[in-house]
Amino acid sequence: MPNVKSIFLTKLLIFLSISLQSIHCQADVIDLNKADSLFNARSYKEAMEIYDSNYQSGVYSPAMLLKMAFISEGIGDNERATLYLSKYYDLDPNPQAITKIKSLTGQSSLVGYEVSDGQRFLIFLTEYQEYIVGALAIFLVLSIIASWITGRKSEKTQTFWPTILLIVLIFAANNFLNGPRTGLITSSPTFIVSKPSAGGELIDMVEPGHRVHIKSNKDIWYEVEWKDKSAFIKKSDVTRM
């Protein structure tokens, strides 16, 4: 029979390592509350430093993105303002965001803002990734406790598949739950070509503000989806979202 105490300690160490991530997330929330206070006090530069640090770490909310867009537009950085509004649109698609992006970029129409229900669901899961991992971690510790109690009361061989499944789900949620790979066109003009070379046939020439779904990398090029077809854009012309 497996050593129940050893199994329990192993599972406990796994759970504690997951808990450390939750503590880090709580620290991020404290930082964001501080940034919000600075924003309300019109200390925009200091607030932006905290917002940007969290954004780079993948921690953001629709309200935070709107504030970042507001600050960026205020200092004349329309490119960053467009980026934050485009990201905001993924989380809260509404016509006002598109209207504002058109105003910032001087575009009358935009390509790449159509998001399928499947993509929206994936974005939703990505946005609430921390809560999903937290809930799975709670179920994991309950499974550990149940296994420990059962092991003490019974000499029968235990079934550990629920715990193993939870560990696999937590690992997958932490490492593979990513939103669609989207890029914002930021150069003027940007050439969209049929092949990843200067000799590729010109498909389109566009201004900043449009979005593309990034399919793969090829040297200095991104393979993207443009109007339901594969095409190529130089990486220097696109900002990853």
Automatic annotation (TrEMBL):
<feature type="signal peptide">
    <location>
        <begin position="1"/>
        <end position="27"/>
    </location>
</feature>
<keyword id="KW-0812">Transmembrane</keyword>
<feature type="transmembrane region" description="Helical">
    <location>
        <begin position="131"/>
        <end position="148"/>
    </location>
</feature>
<dbReference type="InterPro" id="IPR011990">
    <property type="entry name" value="TPR-like_helical_dom_sf"/>
</dbReference>
<keyword id="KW-1133">Transmembrane helix</keyword>
<feature type="transmembrane region" description="Helical">
    <location>
        <begin position="160"/>
        <end position="177"/>
    </location>
</feature>
<keyword id="KW-0732">Signal</keyword>
<keyword id="KW-0472">Membrane</keyword>
<protein>
    <recommendedName>
        <fullName>SH3 domain-containing protein</fullName>
    </recommendedName>
</protein>
